[in-house]
Amino acid sequence: RNGQHSLPDCYVYLLIPGLLSNHSPLYFVNIKRVFSKMGLACHIARIHSEASVERNAWELKQYIEELYWGSGGKRVMLLGHSKGGVDAAAALSIYSQELRDKVSGLALVQCPFGGSPIASDILREGQLADRETRRVMEFLICKLIQ
User: What parts of the sequence cross the membrane (predicted)?
Assistant: First the structure.
């Protein structure tokens, strides 16, 4: 507001991208630039967005620990979008003991904790797609993206 921000600079901010972000090289770049212009330490987690939640949780644990120790002990604020939020929440849940003192908070935007309505509708009988389209979509969603 009026050229001033109220985000504290005592944290390192970690942006955690969502599904298919590997196919968009500019994902979160503008947001990171805004944080940097405000003088805030901000990083984008380079996780494989289509990997399992468990794998990304482990990779995020590594990122968090690296940022924490590399910053001289600044706590990390996690900002997750879409599947990235699910990955971040899983990291905090699975590795709660290791991350307890290293993470200051978790902010989530558009995270599908209840599943994805679009994917569910495509796969549900009598919804958006006919039987053949549902089979193709089920293959894409369940086999390729997992």
Answer: none
Query: Closest by alpha carbon to 138, among 112, 125, 114, 119?
Result: 119
Q: What is the pLDDT of residue 23?
A: 79
pLDDT in tens, 111-143: 887 766 665 555 555 555 566 666 776 677 666
**Residue 29 dihedral angles phi and psi, to the nearest 5°:** -65, -45
> Which pair of structure tokens corresponds to residue 126?
């009598």
Q: Which amino acid makes up residue 31? A: I
- Selection from 58, 47, 142 nearest residue 95 by Cα: 58
Contact of 14 with 67, CB cutoff 8 Å: yes
Q: What are phi and psi of 93, to 5 degrees?
A: -75, -50
C-alpha–C-alpha distance, residues 107 and 85, integer Å: 8
pLDDT of residue 106: 96
All structural domains of the chain: 12-114 (3.40.50.1820), 116-145 (no CATH)
